[in-house]
Request: fold
Amino acid sequence: MKNEDTIEVRIELDPINPWAEIFTAELAGLGFDGFMTERNALLAYCLESVDAKAAIESTTLSDAENLKYKVSYKTIPYQNWNANWEADFEPVYVENYATIRAPFHEEIEIKGFDIIIQPKMSFGTGHHQTTWLMTKAMCEEPVAENVLDMGTGTGVLAIIAEKLGAKEIEAVDIEEWSA
Reply:
């Protein structure tokens, strides 16, 4: 696979709602894989191999009633986003229950379970409140014998369940980066 530049399409919308959600849904089916909303704009991202202008023209943007809009395009040079993200990845301490860290975090204090994961931009690094709170709750309550970790990401919660003594664990995800 060739390392491609990214195209950022900025669509200034007046009004922003409900149009940002409508265009996000339309563009997601046209090769765009990243979206962000600002106060009055939708930012949509695709690889340079996607014909961004043709995709925008095929949406309902130009047919939308009572909508003012302005579209601009910017090329973002290729970056290894995962490497950039990993470089800033800090270990997570879930109180004294668990330390969630990457293999490259070597000389750190370990509190509780030592969970080593290769993050790869997957959900489950412990940085998000849901993973942190679930880890804490699992450590404070009796663990179930059977555990389903739906949308497992890195598998952190499944690993915690195993360390806490769960007998049968099923961890499921559809994302490419998942463990």
About this structure: The chain has a mean pLDDT of 90.
